[in-house]
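Predicting holo structure, magnesium ion bound.
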Amino acid sequence: MTNIDYVKVFESSSAFPRPSSFCPSYGTAGFRADASLLLSTLFRCGLLVAARSLLLGKSCGLMITASHNQVSDNGVKLIEPDGSMLPQDWEPAATALAQCSTDQEVVDSLRSILTTGVSASTLNTPSCEGILSVLFGYDNRPSAPDLLKAAVAGVAALGVQHQDVGFVTTPMMHFVVHQWNSPCRPASTHEAQETYFETLIGAFEQLVEGLPRPPDGGQLLIDCANGVGAHHLVKVQQRLWSAGLQMVLFNTGDGQLNMECGADHVQKERVAPTGFPELKPYSRCCSVDGDADRLVYFTVAGSTSEGTTMLLLDGDKIASLTAAFIKDLLKQLPDSVGSDIKVGVIQTAYANGASTSYVKEQLLLSVECTPTGVKYLHQAAHSYDVGVYWEANGHGTVLFSAELLRRLEKAERVCSAAKDLLLLSKVINQTVGDAFSGILLVEAVLRRKAWSLSQWDGLYQDMPSRQIKLKVADRALITVEDAERKCVTPAGLQKDIDALISEYPAGSRAFVRPSGTEDAVRVYSEAPTQEQANDLACRVGKAVYLQAGGVGPMP
Ligand code: 16G
Ligand code: MG
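Done. Tokens:
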């Protein structure tokens, strides 16, 4: 084990005291808060990610972003050497370190992480300092430079080197860290970024080679949320234009990050983002979030006297399209390659019931439901040969097992479906959900099927749904089970919810969960009509308010 200079850690820590009223905890996807509070958290995450790198003997990554949150917030996501997210058994240690009150507590907490290891499996892995470093990436928030300095100080306190990857999307960062630890490690992080674009775009070009441009000329209007995605999309616009995809970029940085734009806004509010022109019916549009790991498509369907109807093609629709396409390809494989391939679609309780029925009843694929958060879906997807996972909010990807990829590689020369599946596995960023990769995937599948947006939308019709959020004094009092579909505490709340649901037609449902990213409780409902869904959500919200100590206006 490396000799750690704990005196240096103590001294470095003293430059980054935790604000006394700030009690950070590792949320759904890392730490997130108002940026002015986060210097100590970033310093300590620097310590943690350096410790993790030393224990694993490999390079880990740290991404500074608060995704779709307002511009004054920031946050941090920690990345494993294989490009996945920090393992869940490290989350309590991350929280404990971030919450230490004194520099001595920071030293003690770090010492405990390094000497006992958080789990036995990480304890005995040899360190190999010198060849490992921590990789840093960040989005375009103005607070990033100061937070970066704090994180660099944390890594340096453990004597570990760092590489500044620069402005990147979160999924690019996951890909770069994965590349950095691969046997064919790139010469620089810049080269790793080029490999990212070459891998995804190269595979897209092959998938659509020789196919006619879509009837609308291949135009795709993209809302970049004034986030870091725009910075990279402009660089590949020309190349993709040659492959028949004309990306027209909006909200590229002239407005405020995520303000009335971005995937979260479009998905939750069901409106077109600010800055968009008046849309022609069924023109292809999509929206990514601030760090470009979420994607939703949208369009308008004709106009009525009340205005145009917005159509949202969310993560569930992307998952359904992808699963249908993959299933078709798998059917074309010879038995020797494709007879026993296990395919699963992983969703959360937020998945629209119509999408679940479509996957189960039309595609005849198995569906698994996990709690909210990419880390749960990603983990579940690993237990299939092809694990297709998406959250309704647009986070998702597909994982292909190493064994399946080996079989496909053997068959690709003689079987075009095997070749196509291999190309799909390259278009898709398998380290994490990726908006840019998602765009190439959707565009390739639509082109291969010669489908319009309206045909894609017609796969199934969404059940009317409603989401509301409310504030309670302590959202931790609300605990849930069964992949968040049942409320355990406060005692009696689930009984009330069940009684309310029973007043609505069969197929109606509702659930409640505490948010992992904001101080709020979320209520979701589905029912045969929009009025019923609204009404049910509102009544369940009232029950939560009364039983869990609501604060502010009652729903
Ligand atoms: C984060 C999660 C996302 C989840 C969302 C839920 C990642 C990379 N992102 O954005 O998966 O759907 O939080 O937010 O894990 P909530 O807990 O506030 O509803
Ligand atoms: Mg995001």
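Residues 189-208 form the longest helix (20 residues).
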